Amino acid sequence: MKKNLLKTLMLTGLMGVACLTAAAQSNDNVDTTVVQTAKTSVKSRKYNLQMSFGRNEDSVKNVSAPKGQFGYALTFTRLDIGFSRLIDNGSFKLSPKNDFLDYRGIKTSTISFDLAYFGYRFNPNFRIYAAAGFDWTLIRLEKNITIQKNTPDLTYVEESIDFSKNRFSSSYVHIPLNFEFRTNENQRGKRFYFVVGPEVSFLLNGKVKQISEERGKQKFRNDYDFQKVRLGGTLRVGYSGIGLFTKYYFNDMFDTEAQKGLKNLAFGITFGIH
Fold it and tell me: In angstroms, rounded to a whole number, what is the distance separating the alpha carbons of residues 101 and 208?
């Protein structure tokens, strides 16, 4: 009787040890799986830094954006950096009456960006949105002249000093209306973009900035007969947040009779296209 009881106890103990061992191994496997899953989750996590505040209707990776959704944001995006070129009645060569605006092409530039937008996405591949931002056209003059302030026409005086910098610039608030077409996202969560649309801009001011040994650094602000309201169009082609842009302004650059037909063309690289 005692022997049978001892055998029973020993068998029960062995079974208990076996069960505890199996449970421990099972817990180890669960813990390992959890750790591995967590590691995998961390590795596959993708961070997307976007400087915006609002309701963004765009999709995330491999997820289609909802149909018929409004979006808006305070943002810093569509940063355009490039070159500006003056077109004088269809020619890149300035006529004699506009020769005083002769400029250094490599240092004549444009920069713009958007700070807010409001739009409507019709489907994952098409949306319309209006934006608001600022842009600058910076003309590096070749000649040693000073554009005059508060004159009915765009006039200048020739200087006897040599300017190391003689920049003639304008700044505008722009409001573009963009029509955006985009492809579906690929497996990497990236896509191609095609954006086109008109733009209206309102003059903030014009500025002359000069640097010379004789006078040091000087700045003069005035409207300098720049167009108060500027009309243009923009074309952007991009992939995964970066692309190329070109802008053409339909009305004349200056509101003067002598500069009639003088227009502005800009082109370069755009960042933050989405």
Answer: 13
Residue 237, helix vs strand vs coil: strand
* 266 three-state secondary structure: strand
State how far the Cα of 243 lies from the Cα of 131, in Å rounded to an integer: 18
* Residues 239 and 194: beta-carbon distance below 8 Å: no
Closest CA to 119 of 50, 172, 52, 68: 68
**Nearest of 38, 69, 37, 32 to residue 54 by alpha carbon:** 69
Helix then strand count (H, E) for the chain reads: 1, 12
Alpha-carbon distance of 267 to 242, in angstroms, equals: 14
22-36, 75-89, 151-165, 218-232, range with the lowest pLDDT? 22-36
Is the pLDDT at 64 greater than 90? The verdict is no
Angle at 192 between CA 190 and CA 198, to 5 degrees: 135
User: pLDDT digits over 7-35, tens only?
Assistant: 444 444 444 444 434 444 444 443 444 33
Are 80 and 109 in contact by the 8 Å Cβ rule? The answer is no
- Please report the pLDDT score of residue 52 as a whole number: 58
Q: How far is CA 175 from the centre of its chain?
A: 14
The letter for the amino acid at 172 is Y
Cα dihedral 73→74→78→83 (10° resolution): 150
What pTM was estimated for this model as a whole?
Answer: 0.77
105/246 Cα distance (integer angstroms): 16
> Is residue 156 packed enough to be buried (19+ CB in 10 Å), middle (13-18) or exposed (0-12)?
middle
